[in-house]
Amino acid sequence: MNPLLATLQPYPFERLRELFASVTPNPAFSPISLGIGEPKHATPLFLKQALAAALDTGLAGYPATGGTPALRQACAGWLQRRYGVSLDPATQILPVNGSREALFAFAQTVVDATREGATVVCPNPFYQIYEGATLLAGARPHYAPSDPARNFAVDWDSVPEAVWARTQLLYVCSPGNPTGAVMPLQEWQRLFELSDRHGFVIASDECYSEIYFRDEPPLGGLEAAVKLGRTDFRRLVAFTSLSKRSNVPGMRSGFVAGDAAILRQFLLYRTYHGSAMSPVVQAASIAAWNDEAHVVENRAMYRDKFAQVTPLLAGVMDVALPDAGFYLWAGVPAAWGGSDTEFARALLAQYNVTVLPGSYLAREVAGQNPGRGRVRMALVAETAECLEAAQRIVQFISSNPKSST
């Protein structure tokens, strides 16, 4: 077996199952899970119709790994409308089977493990695929800490110059998972300067870009590059997905865009890897990228939901409306001694609500785990269910002896 498999840590949801193995949820309450970031809003009818309409002709042949010109053009059109960015659909855009698959495969393409000290930098806390992709590519991860005083924005300046010098790939996530933080232009400028100096590639994970709570939509990596005069997108690839934007996680559809030279090699890798998107999914994806009305409606539902749930929880927890995304990154009451795992176990046992311990989404560095003492809540269900969960959490904290000591 590949010995690198032994370097992987258990996935957060596997750890959650183990944490709850001895917990008996209170049967007086129906189960509500805020643990997994899986969109629960209804899939738009027109996307179901597009999938069905493509069945007659879409399954009769092998699809091309590069996707159809029509799909790449639809992706390019969306980038132009959303970010004001113009790309060549033939060379600078590549369909992928969801951003998760692509984020993993990208490291296998970019990392040269034969170079001594091959390093991949990622935020901490972070989406666990970054770490797994790094380890299986034969590189070592470096966890850049987040600053709680700045909504857990990543402190890139804390990364030593010696680490940047051996870095081959940098994963960034904006809007961030789990914190919802959005990277401003000056942060992008800093990363581009570091990339120019040290030659590493930037993988920009932007799968939450269309769920936001401010008037101005989140800045994207390609958009930031254009604003800073970097129109060739050198060493930059952005990853996006329909899963959250269009409520179709089961379609496994997204695309990557950016540096044409890197995407040419990524396409080569994917051709051998067998990563072509089903023509049926391509047809529905074209319909999704060409329609914005359902995205506006979806965003409005999240805004209404967060506007109702956040103030409730803010009365008993350290939590605030994020910049974007569909997570609340909440601090547990001090009386729990910073134990996010104990808090999660007790909440499930007493009120049958599942939350994900923040420490499972981060790594301990210098004796500190930046996720410890926090929980991630995915507000993905309908508003009524999320409100019910929030009310139970308020009752749990208010009535629990540990919280009142």
Structure commentary:
The protein is α/β, with parallel strands linked by helices and 405 residues long. It has 2 domains: 3-42 and 294-400, Aspartate Aminotransferase, domain 1 (Alpha-Beta Complex); 60-291, 3-Layer(aba) Sandwich (Aspartate Aminotransferase, domain 2), CATH 3.40.640. The chain is built from 15 helices and 13 strands. It has helices at 12-20, 45-58, 69-83, 99-110, 129-136, 161-165, 185-198, 221-227, 242-246, 260-273, 279-289, 293-314, 340-351, 383-399, 401-404; strands at 32-33, 93-96, 119-124, 140-147, 153-154, 167-173, 201-205, 236-241, 254-258, 327-331, 353-354, 356-357, 374-378. An 8-stranded mixed sheet has the order 2-9-8-7-6-3-4-5, with helices on both faces. Strands 10-13-12 form a 3-stranded antiparallel sheet. Strands 1-11 form a two-stranded parallel sheet. Helix 5 (129-136) links the parallel strand 3 (119-124) and strand 4 (140-147). It is globular and about 60 Å long. The model has no long low-confidence stretch (mean pLDDT 95).
